[in-house]
Amino acid sequence: MDNFNWKDFEGTEFNEEYRLEALLGFGTFGGVFRAEQIFDGKHLRDVAIKIPDPRKGTSLTKEITVAINLDHPHIIRCYCKTDGVLDGKALTALVMELGQANLKSRMEKGKFSVEKTREVAIAVASALVYLHKNNIIHRDIKPANIVLVQDICKVADVGVARVLNDGTDLTVSVTGSYAYMPPESYLSDFSKIDKNVISTAFDQWSLGIMIFEMLTGRHPFKTLCEVPSEEPNLSELPKPFKEIVKGCLQKDYKNRWTAIQVFNALEPATPTKVPRLAVNPISAQILKVLIPKSLSGLGVRILIALFVYFWFFFNIFVPFQNRKFTEFKNYEQSAISKVKSKDYAGAIRDSTEAIRLRFNLLGSNSINDYMFYQRGLAKQALGDKQGAIADFNQAITLNDTDIKRGINAYLPRGEAKQALGDKEGAIADYYKASETADSPSFLCNIGEAKASLGDRKGAINDYKKAAELYKKDNYYGIDINCLELIKRFGG
Q1: Residues 369, 358: contact at Cβ < 8 Å?
Q2: Cis (ω within 30 of 0) for the bond into 240?
Q3: Does this chain's domain 271-395 share its CATH topology with 401-491?
């Protein structure tokens, strides 16, 4: 223990599923490694795995509880927890999306352009809007915690994040990196800041410091002693960053800008522009014929408006929708194929994109239920049981139990619940699956699942139901194991 060195564990296995390839960083929380995830004896994907320090007996339970339920394009995805052994100690680690670099390493190469700064700030602000809407403050926003995943900025390290109650959190300590902490965290007399209320404004201060650094290459304060009392010189900042940073660096946290204010200032809503239509000579002649000379000015305007509307609808809107629908179908088919070929990471990406496209095309009432089912299967195969259950819940809510399409989300949801130790929930799902199943093989699978939980009577009933369907419809190509079960228990 005295000679403990995180790098000594490079090349070792945390468990049979994760091989630790390289140390990415370590601190009081523990260590983060780039790891190879192995599935069925083969390389599946590269991930980051965060392991608590075995010398300190620390736990990532709180972080896992918060992080694993976060789902935002600019927040590092936390796939699942996994149990393993490091330095002879049994530990629970957090498996996460792997980034290629962090913002700190990029900033060390020099100042950012206005456009690059804007891109990063929008990404971080949108992530903070999401976190704050869920009453979570990050408390350690800094360049080292902004990770680049294929050049997409994502907020990482929710290890010090804190879930707030009613938007505020009474605490006796402050966590974070001093260079990015707001003035209220420097006060020794906590009564001066409303009993030390740590609010979502904590993160806005950190974002303001980071924006200033990206544009200038330096910290806005010469020393940290200036933070509680001195005002930074923002004269060199271009618009709109001068106003944004000024709003973020308000000493009184109650006057500080919110994340949504920062986001809106960086990406203001702009009205949709309708392209000008050049009226060719033929169209002009048609208009002359269609519009009588006696028609009033209002009538002419109405007819022109109708003409423009229908031209736009058939020449721009309809072709655009057709292209988007084709794109959606391509992603849908790709997701299905990737689940079959065991490319689960690719299946998750494609099914997520298919869900987004269908939502944009048809609205919330037509979200693709089948894609939630496919994405749930992929997440389950990768060990993300909780994420899988969330998708199966959505599939079931959308009535995704169409056996003719080979779908029944109750069975895999039951399997995920069983893996997490929820025996009662698993049994309930297996019985629900039995009600809708009309395939002998599917009923055999349900029966086996019930039998594995000790529900022998329920299993036999499923085998008998499978036997009746087998005799009635004379199924061919049925699984041999299923056929044996039918003969043994179903008569």
Answers
A1: no
A2: yes
A3: yes
